[in-house]
């Protein structure tokens, strides 16, 4: 126990120290939100990866989907690496960097408002982001606190409160630069931790071959007397597995806290290097988490919840209880690292969106135009500082709301994520991506996709989830492309001059 607490305290002291170190660079809006748009490839790639993978993946997703699909759940990690990291960087990285810098966009709602010349879209997008990032944050709290309770013996309620306070401190102090630097430190711990944990767990089961053979002997949940499905290539339920791959991989393309990483990277050469680093990181961390979760059935059936369902979120913690104290201490740091990086990204995204897109909706000149009536430097600096103060206050507000949900979570971690990712990516993914590439995307089509993504997710939830939230999210994302395309064909085009000014960034 002394080792566990000592390592945890050292880790927390380091991340708070980084917050103090980055404080001077977080006095302006660009510095606080984007790190001055000069964050290098290593920091950006690790910030992307650590924001992507948190306790939600390690505790919630790895446990639940490992139980359902066995070793085939590893395909989710492969999809996260190839689709969620490699293709995301290749398809979105360069064009996002160039266009958002050209139109001086700092947030995804700001992008929608300027790209499609609609302040209404900017407000609607900011409200959607703020509301649906809350269940995501609550899921992260729940995952880290479950493991903390197992590893350190600290009650769940105390864990989530401590977690919230520490995250708030270093994000408020240092903004995005502190978050990115801590993400790099936390990413190193995650890489080392997941490899060590997998080796330790398999060693307890007599090695990889022995563990796979035992898993192959497990009978199917269908009760038909067959076995071997949990050790097969595509598992017992490949179609639902595909839905999970789509949600968790393609979903990152439409999440504000993920796409925002491309806003801040230094240049195109850094994007190329960041693509490779981010993809390798995802292969190790995501692939390792789901591979580990695939062996969950070897550790017995998880307890039942009062509603008669299995407590999926207890599967991974139960796998780790037999490990030596030093390994458990490493696991605690692993999940703490993953979760705090994700939380930091979420609260920073939410506070910046509310501040810049709702409270201070400055009227910007279009690219290529001269802004009239510019205020003097002293007043501008005062306004900048006021915005940063408001963002810091909203960070506290956002953390408190998500904390209240985390103290009484309504469902499993995976379902919290499904609701959040489904609404956000269902609303944002198609119009954002097509807005970067297709001049014919119309303002009306963006409105239609907002209604589609949020409407489908909310209606499914209100009617008791007739469609699994995971599959519902996947349908919302993929269907959004059809909604944007068809609506764009049937609605008035945007002014040609405005569109040409927006796309001029790609000609430089």
Name its key features.
mainly alpha, globular, Sodium/glucose cotransporter, 19 helices, 508 residues
- Report the radius of gyration as a whole number of Å: 22 Å
**CATH homolog superfamily:** Sodium/glucose cotransporter
Question: Could you state the oligomeric state of the chains shown?
Answer: single chain
Structural class: mainly alpha
The end-to-end distance, rounded to whole angstroms, is 58 Å
CATH fold-level assignment: Sodium/glucose cotransporter
- The helix-strand sequence is HHHHHHHHHHHHHHHHHHH
Largest sheet: none
Helical amount = over 70%
What's the rounded overall pLDDT mean? 82
Q: How large a portion of the residues is in β-strands, by DSSP E?
A: under 5%
Q: What's the domain count?
A: 1
Summarize the entry for a quick read.
Helices cover 74% and strands 0% of the residues. It contains 19 helices and no strands.
Verbal overview:
The chain contains 19 helices and no strands. With 508 residues, it is mostly helical. It has a single domain, classed as Up-down Bundle (Sodium/glucose cotransporter), CATH 1.20.1730.10.
Task: Summarize the topology.
Blueprint: H1 2-21, H2 29-34, H3 41-52, H4 55-69, H5 74-102, H6 108-115, H7 119-152, H8 156-204, H9 208-216, H10 238-250, H11 256-264, H12 268-293, H13 315-320, H14 325-359, H15 377-407, H16 413-437, H17 443-462, H18 469-490, H19 496-503
Helix pairs in contact: 1-8, 1-14, 3-8, 3-11, 3-12, 3-14, 4-7, 4-12, 4-14, 5-10, 5-11, 5-12, 6-7, 7-8, 7-14, 7-15, 7-16, 7-17, 8-12, 8-14, 8-15, 10-18, 11-14, 14-15, 16-17, 16-18, 17-18
């Amino acid at each position: 126990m002394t080792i566990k607490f000592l390592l945890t305290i050292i880790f927390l002291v380091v991340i708070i120290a980084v917050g103090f170190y980055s404080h001077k660079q977080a006095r302006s809006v660009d510095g606080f939100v984007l790190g001055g748009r000069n964050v290098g490839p290593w920091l950006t790639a690790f910030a992307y990866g650590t924001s992507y993978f948190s306790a939600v993946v390690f505790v919630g997703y790895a446990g639940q989907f490992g139980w359902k699909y066995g070793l085939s759940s590893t395909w989710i990690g492969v999809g996260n690496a190839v689709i969620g990291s490699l293709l995301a960087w290749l398809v979105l990285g360069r064009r996002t960097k160039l266009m958002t810098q050209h139109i001086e966009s700092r947030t995804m709602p700001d992008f929608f408002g300027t790209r499609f010349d609609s302040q209404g879209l900017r407000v609607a997008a900011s409200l959607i982001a703020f509301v649906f990032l809350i269940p995501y944050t609550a899921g992260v709290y729940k995952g880290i606190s479950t493991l903390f309770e197992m590893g350190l013996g600290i009650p769940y309620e105390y864990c989530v409160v401590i977690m919230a306070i520490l995250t708030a401190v270093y994000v408020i102090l240092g903004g995005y630069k502190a978050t990115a630097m801590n993400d790099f430190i936390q990413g190193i711990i995650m890489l080392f931790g997941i490899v060590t944990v997998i080796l330790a767990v398999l060693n307890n089961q007599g090695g990889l071959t022995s563990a796979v053979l035992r898993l192959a002997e497990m009978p199917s949940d269908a009760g038909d007397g067959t076995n071997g499905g949990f050790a097969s290539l595509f598992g017992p339920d490949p179609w639902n597995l595909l839905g999970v791959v789509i949600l968790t991989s393609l979903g990152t393309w439409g999440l504000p806290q993920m796409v925002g990483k491309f806003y801040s990277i230094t240049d195109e050469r850094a994007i190329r290097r960041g693509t490779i680093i981010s993809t390798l990181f995802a292969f190790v961390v995501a692939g390792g988490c789901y591979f580990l979760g695939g062996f969950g059935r070897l550790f017995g059936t998880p307890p039942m919840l009062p509603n008669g369902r299995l407590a999926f979120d207890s599967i991974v913690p139960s796998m780790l209880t037999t490990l030596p104290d030093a390994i458990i201490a490493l696991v605690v740091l692993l999940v703490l690292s993953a979760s705090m990086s994700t939380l930091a990204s979420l609260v920073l995204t939410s506070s910046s969106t509310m501040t810049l897109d709702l409270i201070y909706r400055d009227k910007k000149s279009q690219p290529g135009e001269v802004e009239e009536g510019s205020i003097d430097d002293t007043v501008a600096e005062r306004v900048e500082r006021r915005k940063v103060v408001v963002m810091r206050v909203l960070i506290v507000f956002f953390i408190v709301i998500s904390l209240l949900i985390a103290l009484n979570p309504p469902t499993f971690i995976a379902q919290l994520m499904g609701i959040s990712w489904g609404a956000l990516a269902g609303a944002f993914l198609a119009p954002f991506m097509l807005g970067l590439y297709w001049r014919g995307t119309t303002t009306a089509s963006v409105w239609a996709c907002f209604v589609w993504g949020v409407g489908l997710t909310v209606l499914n939830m209100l009617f008791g989830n007739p469609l699994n939230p995971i599959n519902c999210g996947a349908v919302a994302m993929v269907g959004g492309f059809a909604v944007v395309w068809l609506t764009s064909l049937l609605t008035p085009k945007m002014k040609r001059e405005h569109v040409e000014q927006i796309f001029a960034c790609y000609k430089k």
